[in-house]
Amino acid sequence: QVQLVESGGGLVQAGGSLRLSCAASGSIFRIDAMGWYRRAPGKQRELVAAITSGGSTNYADSVKGRFTVSRDNAKNTVYLQMNSLKPEDTAVYYCKVAHYELGGKYDYWGQGTQVTVSS
After folding, report:
1. What is the DSSP string of 39-106?
2. Which 3 state secondary structure label does DSSP give 88?
3. pLDDT per residue over 46-68, tens digit each?
4. β-pairing verdict for 18-26 and 77-82
5. pLDDT tens track for 72-90
6. CB 51 within 8 A of CB 32
7. Of 99, 114, 110, 35, whose CA–CA distance to 68 is shortest?
8. How close are the terminal C-alpha atoms of the chain, in Å?
């Protein structure tokens, strides 16, 4: 089992910055891709950014150039640096980790952290 603990959400004015963190703990064997998703009120959950074990990244078009995803493999932690935040970035942000364990690869989700951007 893998547990994910997120931190760093909060309230910020438009144009501001926040940094989200998601730390994995528990019986960790090998972590594959790590990423961030978000769900805005009344909308479906969407991919924000992801990073592979090799460091390749993928971003939603709406956040390209403003958000940066990174990871620290020694700490089993993924980060999301969010700059130039807009009110439309307001959502609950969830981290997701793909973990190899006996029997295959499984996805684990964080509990979510609220990000609110005021205009």
Report:
1. E-TTS--EEEEEE-TT--EEE-GGGTTTEEEEEETTTTEEEEEE-S--GGG-EEEEEEEEEEETTEEE
2. helix
3. 999 999 999 999 999 999 999 99
4. antiparallel
5. 999 999 999 999 999 999 9
6. no
7. 35
8. 40
